[in-house]
């Protein structure tokens, strides 16, 4: 059992992918509001840094160095929480990656690994913790979908398909749970200033180089507020609301053609391109990844 709690709540929020980007900003919001944290990430050094940072908010922080690419990791997380006697009141399935490239040119193993992270681990955590939430008739789950869940995305096909799964699953469960005090919220961010593009080999694309990027803190705030209000879905940002409105008026083939264009190399001059995230937590994780790969 976790100890040394001196905050005003015994509630815990479990957040995957909590060391950078939107996940980091969501964890910060929970900590500022006095909620204890269970932070899940696979970068041990960065996980320790973030855990120490959030303890300054006088909350209990449990750091779990788990790799959700591992098929056993999600069950291990649940088992460890049960063994510690920690009740997870908020589950945030934030961890996710994509891979740019033609489907047939990306190794099958990479596709399967991404589905393990983006779909299977998310589904497993949702299923396991949802049982406990239903049994006590309380709890909230936030699943990270994406605006790309609303369109086919050539050269980003598996990621878009995985986010379509997340959105569909979340909205279906929200209806199933209407007669309970348990809620599920899908957050649909758009292009956001995180390390996502680097991990997905998208740095040279029009998608990354020729569009405005949202502030991860603002995206996290949209998701957090929707989660706390029990909304089933939230599209982050006015620009993304307009984008989804446009996607809904166009055919799938037209949307796919537009997405395909955005995945092509940019025409911007080299000295005018972005190369790093301006989000401090995301850039810090990028530095550690690069150091480990040297």
TrEMBL record:
**Pfam families, per the entry:** adh_short (PF00106)
Q: Which family does it belong to?
A: Belongs to the short-chain dehydrogenases/reductases (SDR) family.
Q: Which domain of life is it from?
A: Bacteria
Entry-linked PROSITE patterns = ADH_SHORT (PS00061)
The alphabetical list of record keywords is: Oxidoreductase
Q: Which GO terms describe its molecular function?
A: oxidoreductase activity
- Name of the protein this chain belongs to: SDR family oxidoreductase
What are the Basic and acidic residues biased-composition ranges?
A: 268-294
> In the UniProt record, does the keyword Oxidoreductase occur?
yes
The family database entries (InterPro entries) matched by this protein are listed as: NAD(P)-bd_dom_sf, Sc_DH/Rdtase_CS, SDR_fam
Which residue ranges are recorded for the region named Disordered?
Answer: 259-294
What GO CC terms are in its UniProt record?
A: membrane
């Amino acid at each position: 059992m976790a100890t040394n709690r001196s905050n005003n709540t015994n509630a815990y929020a479990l957040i995957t992918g909590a060391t950078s980007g939107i996940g980091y900003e969501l964890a910060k919001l929970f900590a500022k509001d006095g909620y204890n944290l269970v932070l899940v990430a696979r970068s041990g050094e960065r996980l320790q840094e973030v855990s120490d940072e959030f303890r300054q908010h006088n909350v209990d922080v449990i750091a779990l160095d788990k790799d959700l690419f591992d098929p056993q990791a999600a069950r291990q997380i649940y088992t460890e929480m049960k063994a510690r006697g920690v009740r997870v009141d908020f589950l945030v399935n934030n961890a996710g990656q994509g891979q740019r490239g033609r489907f047939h040119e990306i190794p099958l193993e990479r596709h399967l690994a991404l589905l393990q992270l983006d779909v299977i681990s998310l589904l497993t955590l949702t299923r396991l913790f949802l049982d406990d939430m239903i049994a006590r008739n309380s709890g909230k789950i936030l699943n990270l979908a994406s605006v790309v869940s609303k369109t086919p995305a050539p050269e980003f096909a598996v990621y878009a398909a995985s986010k379509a799964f997340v959105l569909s699953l979340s909205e279906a469960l929200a209806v199933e749970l209407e007669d309970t005090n348990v809620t599920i919220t899908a957050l649909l961010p758009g292009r956001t200033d995180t390390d996502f593009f680097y991990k997905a080999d998208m740095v040279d694309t029009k998608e990354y180089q020729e569009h405005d990027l949202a502030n991860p803190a603002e995206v996290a705030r949209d998701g957090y507020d929707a989660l706390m209000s029990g909304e089933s879905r939230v599209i982050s940002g006015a620009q993304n609301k307009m984008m989804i409105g446009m996607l809904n008026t166009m055919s799938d083939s037209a949307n796919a053609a537009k997405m395909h264009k955005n995945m092509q190399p940019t025409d911007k001059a080299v000295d005018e391109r972005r190369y790093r995230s301006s989000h401090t937590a995301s850039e810090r994780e990028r530095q550690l990844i690069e150091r480990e790969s040297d």
